[in-house]
Write a structure and sequence with these properties.
Blueprint (H helix, E strand, L loop, with lengths): L13 H6 L15 H4 L15 H4 L10 E19 L13 H7 L11 E11 L4 E8 L5 E3 L12 E16 L4 E20 L1 H12 L2 H10 L10 E23 L2 E8 L2 E12 L5 H7 L7 E9 L2 E9 L4 E10 L6 E6 L6 E6 L5 E11 L4 E10 L18 E13 L2 E12 L2 E6 L6 E20 L1
Antiparallel strand pairs: 1-2, 1-20, 2-3, 3-5, 4-5, 5-6, 6-7, 7-8, 7-9, 8-11, 9-10, 10-13, 11-12, 12-15, 13-14, 15-16, 16-17, 17-18, 18-20, 19-20
Length: about 475
Amino acid sequence: MTRLPSKTLLAVSLAAALFHSSVYAAGFALIEQSGSGAGNAYAGAAAVAEDAASGWFNPANLAELPKGMHISAAGHLIAPKAKFTNKGSWVNPALTGGNFDKAKEAMLGKNDDGGHAKVIPHAFFSKTFNDHFSAGVGMNVPFGLGTKYDEDWIGRYLALQSDITTININPAVAYKLNDKFTIGAGVNVQYMEVVLKSSIDSSATCLSIASAANNGDILAQCLARLPKLANAATDSKATITGDDVSYGYNLGMIYKPTPKTKIGISHRSKIDHDLEGDVDYDINAALQPVITAVGTTRFNDGNVTAAANLPATTSLSVAHQLNDKVEVLGDVTRTGWSSFERLTVKRDDATKTLVTDVNQDWKDSNRYALGVNYQKNDNLKLRAGVALDKTPIKSAQLRTARTPDNDRTWVAVGATYKLAKGMSVDVGYAHLFTDETPIDNTSSDNGYALRGLYDSSVDIVSAQFNWSF
Protein backbone atom coordinates (compact mmCIF):
# COMPACT_ATOMS: atom_id res chain seq x y z
CA MET A 1 0.00 0.00 0.00
CA THR A 2 1.34 3.46 -0.92
CA ARG A 3 1.69 5.72 2.10
CA LEU A 4 0.38 9.20 1.39
CA PRO A 5 2.00 12.14 3.18
CA SER A 6 -0.92 13.07 5.41
CA LYS A 7 0.20 16.65 6.02
CA THR A 8 -0.19 17.43 2.34
CA LEU A 9 -3.80 16.34 2.28
CA LEU A 10 -6.66 18.68 2.75
CA ALA A 11 -8.06 16.74 5.67
CA VAL A 12 -4.99 17.36 7.80
CA SER A 13 -5.02 21.14 7.34
CA LEU A 14 -8.62 22.06 6.77
CA ALA A 15 -8.51 25.25 8.77
CA ALA A 16 -5.41 26.29 6.85
CA ALA A 17 -7.38 26.01 3.65
CA LEU A 18 -10.22 28.00 5.15
CA PHE A 19 -7.98 30.83 6.25
CA HIS A 20 -5.40 30.52 3.50
CA SER A 21 -6.49 33.70 1.80
CA SER A 22 -6.87 36.98 3.51
CA VAL A 23 -10.32 38.34 4.08
CA TYR A 24 -9.00 41.85 4.25
CA ALA A 25 -7.37 42.26 0.82
CA ALA A 26 -7.59 45.55 -1.07
CA GLY A 27 -10.78 44.39 -2.75
CA PHE A 28 -12.44 44.32 0.69
CA ALA A 29 -11.11 47.58 2.07
CA LEU A 30 -14.07 49.83 1.33
CA ILE A 31 -13.33 53.42 0.36
CA GLU A 32 -17.04 53.96 -0.34
CA GLN A 33 -17.77 56.27 2.58
CA SER A 34 -19.11 59.39 0.85
CA GLY A 35 -21.84 59.98 -1.71
CA SER A 36 -20.24 63.21 -2.94
CA GLY A 37 -16.78 61.64 -3.18
CA ALA A 38 -18.15 58.74 -5.22
CA GLY A 39 -18.53 60.96 -8.27
CA ASN A 40 -14.84 61.99 -8.07
CA ALA A 41 -13.45 58.47 -7.52
CA TYR A 42 -12.63 59.91 -4.06
CA ALA A 43 -9.99 62.25 -5.44
CA GLY A 44 -9.07 64.99 -2.99
CA ALA A 45 -11.13 63.40 -0.22
CA ALA A 46 -8.81 64.47 2.63
CA ALA A 47 -8.95 68.12 1.52
CA VAL A 48 -12.63 68.61 0.64
CA ALA A 49 -15.32 69.41 3.21
CA GLU A 50 -18.54 68.78 1.30
CA ASP A 51 -20.70 67.28 4.07
CA ALA A 52 -20.56 65.39 7.36
CA ALA A 53 -19.18 62.29 5.61
CA SER A 54 -16.03 64.27 4.75
CA GLY A 55 -14.89 63.75 8.35
CA TRP A 56 -14.14 60.09 7.62
CA PHE A 57 -11.36 60.96 5.19
CA ASN A 58 -9.90 63.71 7.39
CA PRO A 59 -11.28 64.69 10.82
CA ALA A 60 -10.02 68.25 10.20
CA ASN A 61 -12.66 68.55 7.47
CA LEU A 62 -15.32 68.87 10.21
CA ALA A 63 -14.14 72.37 11.12
CA GLU A 64 -14.37 73.44 7.47
CA LEU A 65 -18.14 72.95 7.39
CA PRO A 66 -20.52 75.90 7.99
CA LYS A 67 -21.79 76.57 11.50
CA GLY A 68 -24.64 74.29 12.54
CA MET A 69 -25.63 70.62 12.49
CA HIS A 70 -24.82 68.39 9.50
CA ILE A 71 -26.19 64.92 8.76
CA SER A 72 -25.25 62.61 5.87
CA ALA A 73 -26.66 59.13 5.28
CA ALA A 74 -25.92 56.94 2.27
CA GLY A 75 -26.04 53.53 0.66
CA HIS A 76 -23.56 52.12 -1.86
CA LEU A 77 -24.58 49.20 -4.06
CA ILE A 78 -21.37 47.33 -4.84
CA ALA A 79 -21.67 44.66 -7.53
CA PRO A 80 -18.41 42.77 -8.17
CA LYS A 81 -17.78 40.15 -10.84
CA ALA A 82 -15.15 37.45 -10.26
CA LYS A 83 -15.66 34.89 -13.02
CA PHE A 84 -13.19 32.03 -12.93
CA THR A 85 -12.09 29.88 -15.87
CA ASN A 86 -10.10 26.75 -15.08
CA LYS A 87 -6.68 26.32 -16.72
CA GLY A 88 -5.31 23.11 -15.25
CA SER A 89 -6.22 22.90 -11.56
CA TRP A 90 -5.39 19.65 -9.81
CA VAL A 91 -5.86 17.52 -6.72
CA ASN A 92 -2.80 16.59 -4.69
CA PRO A 93 -0.61 14.60 -7.14
CA ALA A 94 0.26 12.24 -4.27
CA LEU A 95 -3.27 10.89 -4.65
CA THR A 96 -2.55 9.89 -8.25
CA GLY A 97 0.92 8.43 -7.75
CA GLY A 98 2.60 11.64 -8.88
CA ASN A 99 0.79 11.66 -12.24
CA PHE A 100 -0.13 15.31 -12.89
CA ASP A 101 -2.36 14.50 -15.85
CA LYS A 102 -4.47 12.23 -13.68
CA ALA A 103 -4.40 14.82 -10.88
CA LYS A 104 -5.89 17.38 -13.28
CA GLU A 105 -8.50 14.92 -14.51
CA ALA A 106 -9.49 14.16 -10.92
CA MET A 107 -10.11 17.84 -10.06
CA LEU A 108 -13.78 17.84 -11.01
CA GLY A 109 -16.00 20.89 -10.88
CA LYS A 110 -17.39 23.77 -12.87
CA ASN A 111 -16.23 27.33 -13.47
CA ASP A 112 -18.05 29.92 -11.37
CA ASP A 113 -18.44 33.61 -10.51
CA GLY A 114 -17.71 34.36 -6.86
CA GLY A 115 -18.86 37.98 -6.93
CA HIS A 116 -22.16 38.94 -5.26
CA ALA A 117 -23.75 42.36 -4.86
CA LYS A 118 -24.21 43.98 -1.46
CA VAL A 119 -25.36 47.35 -0.13
CA ILE A 120 -22.94 49.18 2.16
CA PRO A 121 -24.50 51.88 4.39
CA HIS A 122 -23.05 54.75 6.38
CA ALA A 123 -24.25 57.66 8.51
CA PHE A 124 -22.26 60.68 9.72
CA PHE A 125 -23.24 63.48 12.08
CA SER A 126 -21.31 66.64 12.92
CA LYS A 127 -21.78 70.03 14.53
CA THR A 128 -19.78 73.18 13.98
CA PHE A 129 -20.10 75.07 17.27
CA ASN A 130 -18.23 78.25 16.35
CA ASP A 131 -15.50 79.59 14.11
CA HIS A 132 -12.95 77.21 15.60
CA PHE A 133 -14.41 74.04 17.14
CA SER A 134 -16.36 71.16 15.58
CA ALA A 135 -17.20 67.58 16.58
CA GLY A 136 -18.86 64.63 14.94
CA VAL A 137 -19.40 60.90 14.88
CA GLY A 138 -19.61 58.39 12.04
CA MET A 139 -20.98 54.87 11.75
CA ASN A 140 -19.81 52.94 8.71
CA VAL A 141 -18.42 49.75 7.19
CA PRO A 142 -14.72 50.22 6.32
CA PHE A 143 -14.07 46.56 5.44
CA GLY A 144 -16.59 44.13 4.00
CA LEU A 145 -18.04 42.18 1.10
CA GLY A 146 -16.77 38.71 0.23
CA THR A 147 -17.03 35.88 -2.25
CA LYS A 148 -19.50 33.03 -2.56
CA TYR A 149 -19.26 30.11 -4.98
CA ASP A 150 -21.56 27.23 -5.85
CA GLU A 151 -20.88 24.03 -3.93
CA ASP A 152 -19.80 22.16 -7.07
CA TRP A 153 -17.31 24.72 -8.41
CA ILE A 154 -13.78 23.51 -9.07
CA GLY A 155 -12.10 25.53 -6.34
CA ARG A 156 -14.44 24.53 -3.51
CA TYR A 157 -11.63 22.91 -1.50
CA LEU A 158 -9.93 26.29 -1.27
CA ALA A 159 -13.03 28.44 -0.75
CA LEU A 160 -16.81 28.29 -0.85
CA GLN A 161 -17.82 31.39 1.07
CA SER A 162 -15.94 34.33 2.56
CA ASP A 163 -17.91 37.00 4.40
CA ILE A 164 -16.54 39.90 6.39
CA THR A 165 -18.55 42.45 8.30
CA THR A 166 -17.00 45.42 10.07
CA ILE A 167 -18.95 48.11 11.90
CA ASN A 168 -16.92 51.17 12.84
CA ILE A 169 -17.93 54.00 15.21
CA ASN A 170 -15.66 57.04 14.88
CA PRO A 171 -16.18 60.09 17.11
CA ALA A 172 -13.88 62.97 16.16
CA VAL A 173 -13.12 66.61 16.93
CA ALA A 174 -11.58 69.39 14.83
CA TYR A 175 -10.12 72.79 15.62
CA LYS A 176 -9.38 75.64 13.21
CA LEU A 177 -6.19 77.23 14.44
CA ASN A 178 -6.32 80.13 11.97
CA ASP A 179 -7.15 80.84 8.34
CA LYS A 180 -4.40 78.52 7.14
CA PHE A 181 -4.32 75.54 9.53
CA THR A 182 -7.00 73.17 10.81
CA ILE A 183 -6.34 70.00 12.81
CA GLY A 184 -8.50 67.04 13.80
CA ALA A 185 -8.42 63.72 15.65
CA GLY A 186 -10.72 60.79 16.36
CA VAL A 187 -10.97 57.37 17.95
CA ASN A 188 -12.40 54.22 16.37
CA VAL A 189 -14.34 51.41 17.98
CA GLN A 190 -14.58 48.58 15.47
CA TYR A 191 -16.50 45.30 15.48
CA MET A 192 -15.35 42.61 13.06
CA GLU A 193 -17.08 39.34 12.16
CA VAL A 194 -15.72 36.71 9.76
CA VAL A 195 -17.43 33.67 8.23
CA LEU A 196 -15.32 31.31 6.10
CA LYS A 197 -16.55 28.09 4.53
CA SER A 198 -14.84 25.41 2.42
CA SER A 199 -15.49 21.89 1.19
CA ILE A 200 -13.51 18.84 2.26
CA ASP A 201 -12.62 16.15 -0.26
CA SER A 202 -14.07 13.19 1.66
CA SER A 203 -12.33 10.57 -0.47
CA ALA A 204 -8.90 12.18 -0.03
CA THR A 205 -9.54 12.53 3.68
CA CYS A 206 -10.43 8.85 3.95
CA LEU A 207 -7.27 7.84 2.09
CA SER A 208 -5.22 10.12 4.32
CA ILE A 209 -6.64 8.53 7.45
CA ALA A 210 -5.99 5.02 6.13
CA SER A 211 -2.45 5.95 5.13
CA ALA A 212 -1.65 7.55 8.48
CA ALA A 213 -3.03 4.50 10.30
CA ASN A 214 -1.33 2.07 7.88
CA ASN A 215 -4.58 0.12 7.96
CA GLY A 216 -5.58 -1.91 4.91
CA ASP A 217 -9.09 -2.58 6.22
CA ILE A 218 -9.82 1.13 6.50
CA LEU A 219 -8.35 1.70 3.04
CA ALA A 220 -10.75 -0.92 1.65
CA GLN A 221 -13.65 0.87 3.33
CA CYS A 222 -12.54 4.13 1.73
CA LEU A 223 -12.35 2.64 -1.75
CA ALA A 224 -15.76 1.01 -1.32
CA ARG A 225 -17.61 3.97 0.17
CA LEU A 226 -15.82 6.90 -1.49
CA PRO A 227 -14.42 5.66 -4.80
CA LYS A 228 -13.96 9.03 -6.57
CA LEU A 229 -11.68 11.94 -5.67
CA ALA A 230 -13.03 15.51 -5.75
CA ASN A 231 -16.64 14.34 -5.87
CA ALA A 232 -18.99 17.19 -4.91
CA ALA A 233 -21.73 14.67 -4.09
CA THR A 234 -19.69 13.22 -1.20
CA ASP A 235 -17.93 16.37 0.00
CA SER A 236 -17.85 17.30 3.64
CA LYS A 237 -17.95 20.92 4.79
CA ALA A 238 -16.29 23.12 7.38
CA THR A 239 -17.23 26.60 8.54
CA ILE A 240 -15.16 28.91 10.68
CA THR A 241 -16.68 31.95 12.37
CA GLY A 242 -15.04 34.55 14.57
CA ASP A 243 -15.53 38.06 15.87
CA ASP A 244 -13.85 40.75 17.93
CA VAL A 245 -14.05 44.39 19.05
CA SER A 246 -10.90 46.51 18.86
CA TYR A 247 -9.78 50.13 18.76
CA GLY A 248 -7.77 52.62 16.73
CA TYR A 249 -7.35 56.32 16.03
CA ASN A 250 -7.24 58.81 13.16
CA LEU A 251 -5.50 62.18 12.76
CA GLY A 252 -5.67 64.90 10.15
CA MET A 253 -4.62 68.40 9.15
CA ILE A 254 -5.60 70.90 6.46
CA TYR A 255 -3.26 73.61 5.19
CA LYS A 256 -4.40 76.48 2.94
CA PRO A 257 -1.39 78.06 1.22
CA THR A 258 -3.79 80.32 -0.70
CA PRO A 259 -7.52 81.04 -0.40
CA LYS A 260 -8.14 78.82 -3.44
CA THR A 261 -5.92 75.87 -2.52
CA LYS A 262 -6.31 73.30 0.25
CA ILE A 263 -3.88 70.52 1.15
CA GLY A 264 -5.10 67.76 3.42
CA ILE A 265 -3.16 64.97 5.08
CA SER A 266 -4.74 62.27 7.20
CA HIS A 267 -3.67 59.07 8.88
CA ARG A 268 -5.85 56.22 10.07
CA SER A 269 -4.15 53.72 12.37
CA LYS A 270 -4.10 49.99 11.89
CA ILE A 271 -6.51 48.00 14.04
CA ASP A 272 -5.42 44.62 15.38
CA HIS A 273 -8.27 42.17 15.91
CA ASP A 274 -7.88 39.00 17.96
CA LEU A 275 -10.72 36.95 16.56
CA GLU A 276 -12.32 34.27 18.70
CA GLY A 277 -14.82 31.82 17.30
CA ASP A 278 -15.64 28.27 16.31
CA VAL A 279 -14.91 25.68 13.69
CA ASP A 280 -17.89 23.48 12.76
CA TYR A 281 -17.70 20.36 10.59
CA ASP A 282 -20.41 18.73 8.52
CA ILE A 283 -18.94 15.31 7.76
CA ASN A 284 -20.32 13.11 4.98
CA ALA A 285 -22.11 10.02 6.28
CA ALA A 286 -19.77 7.68 4.38
CA LEU A 287 -16.68 9.24 5.96
CA GLN A 288 -17.91 9.41 9.55
CA PRO A 289 -17.53 5.67 10.39
CA VAL A 290 -13.90 5.77 9.25
CA ILE A 291 -13.18 8.81 11.44
CA THR A 292 -14.84 7.08 14.36
CA ALA A 293 -12.95 3.82 13.82
CA VAL A 294 -9.55 5.54 13.84
CA GLY A 295 -10.47 7.92 16.63
CA THR A 296 -9.07 11.02 14.98
CA THR A 297 -10.06 14.28 16.68
CA ARG A 298 -9.06 16.78 14.00
CA PHE A 299 -12.65 17.04 12.78
CA ASN A 300 -14.06 17.78 16.20
CA ASP A 301 -16.00 21.02 16.47
CA GLY A 302 -14.22 23.48 18.72
CA ASN A 303 -12.97 26.97 19.45
CA VAL A 304 -10.30 28.70 17.37
CA THR A 305 -8.42 32.00 17.45
CA ALA A 306 -6.79 34.07 14.74
CA ALA A 307 -5.23 37.50 14.38
CA ALA A 308 -6.59 39.93 11.78
CA ASN A 309 -4.41 43.02 11.46
CA LEU A 310 -6.28 45.62 9.41
CA PRO A 311 -3.77 48.03 7.87
CA ALA A 312 -3.03 51.71 8.46
CA THR A 313 -3.71 54.24 5.71
CA THR A 314 -2.18 57.66 5.00
CA SER A 315 -3.65 60.09 2.47
CA LEU A 316 -2.36 63.30 0.88
CA SER A 317 -5.00 65.31 -0.97
CA VAL A 318 -5.10 68.59 -2.86
CA ALA A 319 -8.11 70.68 -3.92
CA HIS A 320 -7.71 73.83 -6.05
CA GLN A 321 -10.47 76.20 -7.16
CA LEU A 322 -9.58 77.23 -10.72
CA ASN A 323 -12.48 79.69 -10.97
CA ASP A 324 -16.07 80.12 -9.78
CA LYS A 325 -17.14 77.04 -11.73
CA VAL A 326 -14.29 74.53 -11.73
CA GLU A 327 -12.43 72.76 -8.90
CA VAL A 328 -9.67 70.20 -9.55
CA LEU A 329 -8.77 67.43 -7.09
CA GLY A 330 -5.91 65.01 -6.53
CA ASP A 331 -5.12 62.29 -4.04
CA VAL A 332 -2.51 59.67 -3.12
CA THR A 333 -3.32 57.07 -0.45
CA ARG A 334 -0.84 54.57 0.96
CA THR A 335 -2.18 51.41 2.64
CA GLY A 336 0.18 49.42 4.85
CA TRP A 337 -0.62 45.88 3.73
CA SER A 338 2.98 44.77 4.45
CA SER A 339 1.90 44.36 8.08
CA PHE A 340 0.06 41.26 6.90
CA GLU A 341 3.04 38.90 6.78
CA ARG A 342 1.68 35.66 8.19
CA LEU A 343 -1.62 34.13 9.17
CA THR A 344 -1.61 32.00 12.29
CA VAL A 345 -4.69 30.04 13.37
CA LYS A 346 -4.82 27.71 16.35
CA ARG A 347 -7.30 25.85 18.48
CA ASP A 348 -8.35 27.69 21.59
CA ASP A 349 -8.04 24.85 24.06
CA ALA A 350 -5.52 23.44 26.49
CA THR A 351 -3.36 22.08 23.67
CA LYS A 352 -3.14 25.40 21.78
CA THR A 353 -2.53 23.26 18.70
CA LEU A 354 -1.22 25.24 15.76
CA VAL A 355 -3.69 24.80 12.93
CA THR A 356 -1.79 26.78 10.33
CA ASP A 357 1.00 29.31 9.94
CA VAL A 358 0.79 30.60 6.37
CA ASN A 359 3.21 33.03 4.75
CA GLN A 360 1.29 35.85 2.97
CA ASP A 361 4.09 38.32 2.17
CA TRP A 362 1.84 41.13 0.97
CA LYS A 363 3.18 44.56 0.07
CA ASP A 364 2.09 48.12 0.80
CA SER A 365 -0.12 49.50 -1.96
CA ASN A 366 -0.94 52.94 -3.38
CA ARG A 367 -4.09 54.50 -4.76
CA TYR A 368 -3.90 57.51 -7.09
CA ALA A 369 -6.93 59.63 -8.01
CA LEU A 370 -7.73 62.76 -10.04
CA GLY A 371 -11.10 64.51 -10.15
CA VAL A 372 -12.96 67.62 -11.20
CA ASN A 373 -16.11 69.42 -10.00
CA TYR A 374 -18.17 71.74 -12.18
CA GLN A 375 -20.71 74.07 -10.54
CA LYS A 376 -23.28 74.28 -13.31
CA ASN A 377 -25.64 76.53 -11.36
CA ASP A 378 -26.69 77.29 -7.79
CA ASN A 379 -28.49 73.96 -7.46
CA LEU A 380 -26.39 71.50 -9.48
CA LYS A 381 -22.75 70.43 -9.18
CA LEU A 382 -21.37 67.86 -11.64
CA ARG A 383 -18.49 65.53 -10.78
CA ALA A 384 -16.03 63.20 -12.53
CA GLY A 385 -12.92 61.29 -11.53
CA VAL A 386 -10.45 58.54 -12.36
CA ALA A 387 -8.26 56.45 -10.08
CA LEU A 388 -5.68 53.66 -10.14
CA ASP A 389 -5.96 51.26 -7.20
CA LYS A 390 -2.94 48.97 -6.86
CA THR A 391 -3.25 45.49 -5.39
CA PRO A 392 -1.12 44.32 -2.43
CA ILE A 393 -0.87 40.79 -3.86
CA LYS A 394 2.59 40.20 -5.29
CA SER A 395 1.98 37.30 -7.64
CA ALA A 396 -0.43 34.73 -9.05
CA GLN A 397 1.04 32.22 -6.61
CA LEU A 398 -0.10 34.32 -3.61
CA ARG A 399 -3.53 35.11 -5.07
CA THR A 400 -6.41 33.00 -3.72
CA ALA A 401 -10.02 32.25 -4.54
CA ARG A 402 -11.23 34.21 -1.51
CA THR A 403 -9.66 37.46 -2.74
CA PRO A 404 -8.91 37.29 -6.49
CA ASP A 405 -7.71 40.90 -6.36
CA ASN A 406 -5.73 42.81 -8.99
CA ASP A 407 -4.95 46.40 -10.01
CA ARG A 408 -8.13 48.32 -10.74
CA THR A 409 -8.82 51.45 -12.79
CA TRP A 410 -11.76 53.60 -11.67
CA VAL A 411 -13.91 55.77 -13.93
CA ALA A 412 -16.54 57.71 -11.99
CA VAL A 413 -19.23 60.33 -12.57
CA GLY A 414 -21.69 61.96 -10.20
CA ALA A 415 -23.68 64.99 -9.20
CA THR A 416 -24.95 66.94 -6.21
CA TYR A 417 -28.39 68.52 -6.41
CA LYS A 418 -29.74 71.03 -3.91
CA LEU A 419 -33.29 70.02 -2.98
CA ALA A 420 -34.09 72.92 -0.67
CA LYS A 421 -32.35 75.15 1.83
CA GLY A 422 -29.99 72.94 3.81
CA MET A 423 -30.95 69.77 1.91
CA SER A 424 -29.13 68.07 -0.95
CA VAL A 425 -28.67 64.67 -2.53
CA ASP A 426 -25.51 63.14 -4.00
CA VAL A 427 -25.47 60.41 -6.62
CA GLY A 428 -22.48 58.66 -8.13
CA TYR A 429 -21.56 55.78 -10.40
CA ALA A 430 -18.18 54.12 -10.82
CA HIS A 431 -16.98 51.24 -12.98
CA LEU A 432 -13.78 49.50 -11.94
CA PHE A 433 -11.84 47.89 -14.77
CA THR A 434 -9.55 45.01 -13.87
CA ASP A 435 -7.01 43.30 -16.08
CA GLU A 436 -7.37 39.56 -16.65
CA THR A 437 -6.24 38.07 -13.36
CA PRO A 438 -4.21 34.86 -13.24
CA ILE A 439 -4.22 32.57 -10.22
CA ASP A 440 -1.67 29.79 -9.72
CA ASN A 441 -2.07 28.93 -6.08
CA THR A 442 -0.85 25.59 -4.72
CA SER A 443 -1.41 24.99 -1.05
CA SER A 444 1.72 24.03 0.85
CA ASP A 445 -0.55 22.28 3.34
CA ASN A 446 -2.77 20.12 1.16
CA GLY A 447 -1.23 20.08 -2.32
CA TYR A 448 -4.40 21.12 -4.13
CA ALA A 449 -3.85 23.71 -6.85
CA LEU A 450 -6.20 26.28 -8.35
CA ARG A 451 -4.94 27.43 -11.72
CA GLY A 452 -6.84 29.63 -14.09
CA LEU A 453 -7.96 33.14 -14.94
CA TYR A 454 -10.40 35.54 -13.31
CA ASP A 455 -12.40 38.00 -15.38
CA SER A 456 -13.21 40.67 -12.80
CA SER A 457 -14.86 44.07 -12.59
CA VAL A 458 -16.94 46.11 -10.16
CA ASP A 459 -19.91 48.45 -10.58
CA ILE A 460 -20.75 50.87 -7.77
CA VAL A 461 -23.88 53.01 -7.45
CA SER A 462 -23.98 55.51 -4.59
CA ALA A 463 -26.70 57.78 -3.20
CA GLN A 464 -26.46 60.10 -0.20
CA PHE A 465 -28.85 62.50 1.51
CA ASN A 466 -27.46 65.56 3.31
CA TRP A 467 -29.23 67.84 5.75
CA SER A 468 -27.74 70.92 7.40
CA PHE A 469 -29.52 73.17 9.87
